[in-house]
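Appendix B: a complete holo record

For completeness, this appendix reproduces one full record from the ligand-bound portion of the collection. The bound molecule is zinc ion. The inputs are the chain sequence and the ligand SMILES; the output is the full three-dimensional arrangement of the complex, encoded as structure tokens. No fields have been trimmed.
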Amino acid sequence: MPVVLEGGCLCGKVRFTASQPPLRTFACHCTFCQRVTGTSFFAESIFPMDAVRFNDGELKRYEHVSEGSQKKVFVHFCPSCGTTVGLTFERWPDLRAISRGCYDDPNAVEVTSHIWTESAQTGVVLPAGIECFARARAQLGGQAEPATKHAMPVLARPA
Ligand SMILES: [Zn+2]
Ligand SMILES: [Zn+2]
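The structure of the chain with zinc ion bound, as generated:
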């Protein structure tokens, strides 16, 4: 398989390769993503499950039940250094998320939307010209939510 992207955890025991560019890369400001990363938001890429291959480094899995959907989200992390390498989802069994910060070159992918901006932290700025969603891109039933594009960078939440 071709190697389009590669990366790994902080200590280097977990390594992965992707055989295609991600389907999309976005920044999520939901409270789950804030807590699981320990920072302001989670920039993550979505891939078809079989497009990402891992080495044999141990990867542990933590199960979290999503408040919104009541479905499980699986956090995949390195037990040696604690890095969250990505997520998988009970709701979307054919997809996996990879943490943008784990790529050897995080700038090889472009963030094309910000979601759950209604729960963004103070001081976070939303860039101009990309799709921003107050909550998810779609409702639980699948109906698309409207996107906002800002003409200038704006604070996600007034200070
Ligand atoms: Zn590690
Ligand atoms: Zn999130």
